[in-house]
Amino acid sequence: MSVQLEQIKQKPKASCAVSWILVVILIASGIGYFTYSQMSYSDGFRSGQLVKISRRGVLFKTYEGSLNLSPNGLMTNWDFSAKNDQVAKKLEESEGKLVRLHYRQRYRVFFWQGDTEYIVDAVEVVQ
User: Fold this and answer.
1) What's the Cα-to-Cα distance from 17 to each of 3, 28, 29, rounded to whole Å?
2) At residue 29, what are phi and psi to the nearest 5 degrees?
3) How does strand 40-56 pair with strand 98-106?
4) Domain boundaries in the chain?
5) 40-125 adopts what CATH topology?
6) What would the mean pLDDT of 64-79 be, rounded to a whole number?
7) Residue 95 and residue 17: Cα distance in Å, rounded?
8) pTM of the full predicted structure?
9) Which of 62, 80, 116, 126 is least surrounded, with the fewest CB atoms within 10 Å of its CB?
10) Cα distance between residue 91 and residue 101, in whole Å
C-alpha cells in the first residue's frame, strides 16, 4: 500500500515539471514570434501626392494615410501607417502636396501598430 502511495505522490511532481516546461516553451515562442514579426524585410522611398492622412482606431489610435503614386492623375493609391506623432504632424501639414516618404515594410503588424505593413518614418516635401 505504501508503494502505491509513493507513486501517487511522485506523479504530480512530474506533470508539474512538464507543465512548467510547456509554459516556458510557449512564452519563448511568443517572444520569438513577436521579435521576428517586427523585423523589417524591406525599406525604401515612395513619392507621390499625399491624398489623405487620418487618425483612426477604436482602442488604439494610429495614423493611416494614402499616397497617389501616379503622376498623370490616375488614382494609384498606396496605403501606409505612421506610428510617430511628429511624422504624422508633418504628414498632416503636407496633405495635398508632393511628398517623398521613407518606409519600412514589416513581416507582420499587430493591431496597435496600424492597418498596413508599411510604416512611414520620414517625410520630405518635394518642390
Assistant:
1) 22, 17, 18
2) -65, -40
3) antiparallel
4) 1-38, 40-125
5) OB fold (Dihydrolipoamide Acetyltransferase, E2P) (2.40.50)
6) 83
7) 58
8) 0.69
9) 126
10) 9
Could you tell me the three cell numbers for 62? 494610429
- Calpha distance 2→93 (Å, rounded): 80
Calculate the CA dihedral of residues 36, 42, 47, 50 and round it to 10 degrees: -10
119, three cell numbers: 510604416
**Backbone angles phi and psi of 57, in degrees to 5:** 135, 155
Is residue 48 within 8 Å of 78, Cβ to Cβ?
A: yes
User: Is the model's pLDDT at 100 over the cut of 90?
Assistant: yes
Helix (H) or strand (E) holding 74: none
Confidence band of 6 (pLDDT split at 50, 70, 90): low
Nearest to 46 by CA among 113, 104, 127, 95: 104
Smallest Cα–Cα separation from 114: which of 46, 47, 66? 66
Compute the 3-state secondary structure of the chain and give helix, strand, coil in percent, each to the nearest 5: 35, 35, 25
